[in-house]
Design goal:
The complex is a heterotrimer of chains A (167), B (179) and C (365).
Chain A: H1 8-15, E1 22-23, E2 31-33, H2 35-47, E3 55-63, E4 67-76, E5 81-90, E6 95-97, H3 107-117, E7 120-122, H4 159-166
Parallel strand pairs in A: 2-5, 6-7
Antiparallel strand pairs in A: 1-2, 3-4, 4-5
Chain B: H1 20-29, E1 34-35, H2 41-50, E2 73-77, H3 82-94, E3 100-104, H4 105-110, E4 132-134, H5 141-156, H6 158-178
Parallel strand pairs in B: 1-2, 2-3, 3-4
Helix pairs in contact in B: 1-5, 2-5
Chain C: E1 7-11, E2 23-29, E3 32-39, H1 47-52, H2 56-64, H3 71-86, H4 92-120, H5 124-145, E4 154-155, E5 158-159, H6 165-190, H7 193-199, H8 207-212, H9 218-221, H10 229-232, H11 253-277, E6 296-304, E7 307-315, E8 321-327, H12 329-333, H13 336-341, H14 346-356, H15 360-364
Antiparallel strand pairs in C: 1-2, 2-3, 4-5, 6-7, 7-8
The chains are: A alpha/beta (167), B alpha/beta (179), C alpha+beta (365).
Chain lengths: 167, 179, 365
C-alpha cells in the first residue's frame, strides 16, 4: 500500500527554522539533519500542533560504507503521513544524541542499533549491548564485519565419556 | 536348571523373570520425563505433541518437567545460539544419569537455515552427544513421537548408546586436535 | 528503624513461565518488584544480516521463523513491502486469501497467548482447550500449503496455492466453532475466580505510558487507544471490510486478555466477509524470476498479531536487499515489562510476561 509522505512544500515549511536541514528532491523526501540540530527538530516534529508526529514507527541505521545513516520514520495520525529523518554519522566515530528524551520508547531500538551497527547515542540512559553477549567484539550489521565463530562451550560431564573411562 | 523352568506351568503367563537391570530399563524406556526447554519454533510443535490431538501421554512421555533435576531427556527444540549454549550445557549437566538428548528440527541438527549466521551454533552435537535426530523445520508432532519411540528402543539397548557416544567423543577429539 | 536490602532474582532463560528463552532480572524488596530488566538475545539469529546475502524470494522463509506462531502475518508484511518496492500489483483473489490466512493466524496466535496465560497461572486445562481448537486452524493451513507452522504460503506477488473447496469447507466449519469455543473459554476462564483474581488490576498501565513506550497491538488497545493499522491504513482489502476494534479500559492483564478474546471474534467476522466476497481469478501476479527492485527504500507496516510489524528494505538495484530492518512489535513492547512489573509481587510478574505475549524469535530476531 502506498503511504503518504510529507510533500516538499510541507517539508520546506519545517526547514525554515533549521540551518542544517537539507531536503533531497526524491519521491519521498527524507530530511537530512546534522546531529546538533537533531533533537530540536524531533521536538518540533512531535510537539508542533500542526504536525504531531507522535509515533516513532521505525528506528534503524544503514551502513553506506563511507557513512552510517541513522533513519527515523515518524508517523502522524493527525496528518496521516510519514516523515523520514536521517542523520549522517562519521563511520569511524558514529555518535549522535539520543532521541529518548523526546521518544522514551526508543530506548531498546537505540540499544539495538548500538549493538549491531555501533552507533553511540549520547544521553541514552543505558547504553549497553542488548542482543549480543557483552563481551562480543564488532558490530555484525556493518558491511565489513568479519567474524570467526568461536568454539562452542564444552560440557565437562558427558555421560558417554565417563563410561568409557571406567572401561 | 533355569530359573524360568522352576515356575509352575499354571503361573507362566503371570510371572516375568528377568534381570533387575532389564526391568529398570523397561520401566525407564516407557516413562521418559523430558525437560520442557523450548528454544524456538520447534517448541510450539513440542507443546502440540503433548496436547489433546497428538497426546504424548499415550506413550507415557507426557511428564514435562521444568526442572532439570527431575528430567532425564533434553529435547533441544530450536535454534541454539552461542549466548544460549552455556545455559543449555548447564542444564544438561544438572540432569541426573542416565540422560538422553534429542535434537529436534534442522536448527538443532546442523544450524538449519541459520547455519551461516554469526551467532548460531551449527548443531547441538557440537556441544552434547545426541541420541536421536528428528529432521524437519519444524518436525510434525508425529515425527517427535516417532523419535521418542526410537529413543525407547535405544534405552532398551544401552550398549548401542554407549558405542555411539564413544564415537561422538572420538569425533569431537579429532575436531579439537585439528583446531 | 529496620533496614532492608534489595536483592536480585534471576528468572530464565530456562524457566517454566518465561516464554521461550526470555531472561528477566528482578530487583526485589521482599516480595515486591522494584525493577524488572529483560535480558534479550538468547535467540538472536542474525536474520537481518542473513537477509542481506539472500535474494528477495529466499528472504521470505526467514520471516516465517521470526514470530513463529504468526508466520502468515509475517509473510504478508514482507511480501507487501517487496511489492511496494518493486511495484507489483497483487490479484484481488490473492488479497482475499491473504486476509483470510492472516486472520486465521491471528486467532491461532491469540489462542496460544491465552492458553499459555492460563497455563502459567496454573490452569493447565485452559491450555489444552486452546491447543485443541488451534488444531482446526492448522488443518486449514495444512490443506492450502501442507505445513503446520512455517508456511511460506504468502509469496511475493500473491499466494502459493489456491484456496481449494476443501479449504473453504474446513474454514466454514471452523467459523461455526468459533463462538462455541469462545463461550466455552468464558465459562472455563473468564468466570473462574482463581483466574480472574490473578489478572484483574494487575500490571495496569495508562494510555499515555503505553504510547510513550511506543507500544502497539493488543497491549496498546487494552489501555483504551483504538489504534489498529488494519483500520488506520486500510491496507490490502481491510478497507472494504466491516469490523470493530475492541479496546480495554484500564490496561491491566484482564483487559489484555479481554481484548484478545474479542479480537478473535472480530477476526472470525472478517474471515466470514472474505469468504463471501472472494472473487474468482488469478492467485499470483506476474513476478520476474530475477526480481530486481529499483534503487530506493521502503517502510511498509502491517498489523501483526502483536502490533505494528514493519519492514524497512533498502534496495541497491540488485537481486538482494542492501539492508533489511524489521520493526518487531514484541521487541518494542518488551520495554513495557519494567513498568508492568514494578510494585507487583513476584507471582504477578508471571502473568505480566504472559499477557504481554512476547515471542522470543521476534524479540531477538
Amino acid at each position: 500500500m502506498k503511504q503518504r509522505y510529507l510533500t516538499a512544500e510541507e517539508l520546506a515549511r519545517i526547514k525554515g527554522n533549521f540551518y542544517t536541514v537539507s531536503i533531497d528532491e526524491e519521491e519521498k523526501p527524507p530530511i537530512y539533519v546534522s546531529p546538533e540540530e537533531f533533537i530540536p527538530l524531533m521536538q518540533l516534529l512531535k510537539t508542533n500542533p500542526r504536525l504531531l508526529f507522535t509515533h516513532l514507527s521505525c528506528l534503524t541505521a544503514v551502513d553506506w560504507k563511507d557513512t552510517i545513516d541513522v533513519v527515523y520514520y515518524l508517523f502522524s495520525e493527525y496528518l496521516g503521513a510519514y516523515v523520514v529523518v536521517k542523520v549522517k554519522t562519521i563511520r569511524n566515530h558514529p555518535e549522535i544524541p539520543s532521541v529518548t528524551s523526546v521518544f522514551p520508547g526508543a530506548e531498546f531500538e537505540e540499544r539495538e542499533v548500538y549493538d549491531l551497527m555501533g552507533v553511540k547515542f549520547t544521553g541514552h540512559p543505558d547504553m549497553r549491548r542488548i542482543l549480543m553477549p557483552e563481551d562480543f567484539k564488532g558490530h555484525p550489521l556493518r558491511k565489513d564485519f568479519k567474524y570467526e565463530k568461536p568454539a562452542p562451550p564444552k560440557a565437562t560431564r558427558v555421560s558417554g565419556e565417563e563410561e568409557e573411562a571406567d572401561a | 536348571m533355569e530359573l524360568r523352568d522352576r515356575v509352575p506351568e499354571s503361573l507362566r503367563q503371570n510371572v516375568l523373570i528377568l534381570k533387575v537391570d532389564e526391568l529398570f530399563r523397561w520401566a525407564h524406556a516407557n516413562s521418559i520425563w523430558p525437560l520442557s526447554s523450548g528454544l524456538a519454533c520447534c517448541a510450539i510443535e513440542m507443546m502440540s505433541t503433548a496436547t489433546a490431538r497428538f497426546d504424548l501421554s499415550r506413550f507415557g512421555y507426557e511428564v514435562f518437567r521444568p526442572c532439570p533435576r527431575q528430567a532425564d531427556l533434553l529435547i533441544v527444540a530450536g535454534t541454539l545460539t552461542y549466548k544460549m549454549a552455556d545455559p543449555i550445557v548447564r542444564l544438561y549437566e544438572e540432569m541426573p544419569e542416565p540422560k538422553y538428548v534429542i535434537a529436534m528440527g534442522s536448527c538443532a541438527i546442523a544450524g538449519g537455515p541459520f547455519a551461516d549466521s554469526y551467532s548460531v551454533v551449527e548443531g547441538i552435537d557440537e556441544v552434547l552427544p545426541v541420541d536421536v535426530y528428528i529432521p524437519g523445520c519444524p518436525p510434525r508432532p508425529e515425527a517427535l513421537i516417532d523419535g521418542m519411540l526410537k529413543l525407547r528402543e535405544k534405552i532398551m539397548h544401552p550398549e548401542r548408546v554407549a558405542a555411539e557416544r564413544a564415537k561422538w567423543a572420538e569425533r569431537k577429539k579429532a575436531k579439537e586436535a585439528k583446531a | 528503624m529496620k533496614r532492608t536490602e534489595t536483592y536480585l532474582l534471576n528468572m530464565g532463560p530456562q524457566h517454566p513461565s518465561t516464554h521461550g528463552v526470555l531472561q528477566v532480572k528482578l530487583t526485589l524488596d521482599g516480595e515486591r518488584i522494584l525493577k524488572a530488566e529483560p535480558v534479550l538475545g538468547y535467540l538472536h539469529r542474525g536474520i537481518e544480516k542473513l537477509m542481506e546475502s539472500r535474494t528477495y524470494f529466499q528472504c521470505l522463509p526467514y520471516t516465517d521463523r521470526l514470530d513463529y506462531i504468526s508466520s502468515m502475518n509475517n509473510n504478508f508484511g514482507f511480501a507487501m513491502a517487496v511489492e511496494e518496492l518493486a511495484g507489483i500489483e497483487v490479484p484481488r483473489r490473492a488479497e482475499f486469501i491473504r486476509v483470510i490466512m492472516a486472520e486465521l493466524n491471528r486467532i491461532n496466535s491469540h489462542l496460544i497467548g491465552i492458553g499459555t496465560l492460563a497455563n502459567d497461572l496454573g490452569a493447565s486445562t485452559g491450555m489444552l482447550y486452546c491447543f485443541r481448537d488451534r488444531e482446526y486452524i492448522l488443518d486449514i493451513f495444512n490443506e492450502v500449503c501442507g505445513a503446520r507452522q512455517t508456511f511460506h504460503y504468502i509469496r511475493i506477488g500473491g499466494v502459493a496455492g489456491d484456496f481449494t473447496d476443501k479449504a473453504r469447507e474446513l474454514t466454514e466449519a471452523f467459523l461455526e466453532r468459533v463462538p462455541k469455543f469462545l463461550s466455552e473459554y468464558d465459562q472455563l476462564l473468564t468466570g473462574n475466580e482463581i483466574f480472574t483474581r490473578r489478572i484483574i488490576g494487575i500490571s495496569a498501565m495508562t494510555a499515555k505510558e503505553a504510547l510513550d513506550l511506543n507500544m502497539t497491538g493488543p497491549n496498546l488497545r487494552a489501555t483504551g487507544v483504538a489504534r489498529d493499522l488494519r483500520k488506520l491504513d486500510g491496507y490490502s482489502v481491510y478497507g472494504e471490510l466491516d469490523f470493530d476494534i475492541p479496546v480495554g479500559e484500564h490496561g491491566d492483564n484482564w483487559d489484555r486478555y479481554q481484548v484478545k478474546m474479542k479480537e478473535m471474534a472480530e477476526s472470525a467476522k472478517i474471515i466470514r466477509q472474505c469468504l463471501d466476497k472472494m472473487p474468482e481469478g488469478l492467485i499470483m501476479a506476474k513476478v520476474p524470476k530475477m526480481l530486481k527492485p529499483p534503487k530506493g527504500e521502503v517502510y511498509s507496516r502491517t498489523e501483526g498479531t502483536r502490533g505494528e510489524l514493519g519492514f524497512y528494505i533498502v534496495s541497491d538495484g540488485t537481486t538482494k536487499p542492501y539492508r533489511v530492518h524489521i520493526r518487531r512489535p514484541s521487541f518494542v513492547n518488551m520495554q513495557g515489562l519494567d513498568l508492568m512489573c514494578r510494585g507487583m509481587l513476584i507471582g504477578d510478574s508471571v502473568s505480566a510476561y504472559s499477557s504481554i505475549d512476547p515471542i522470543m524469535g521476534e524479540v531477538d530476531c
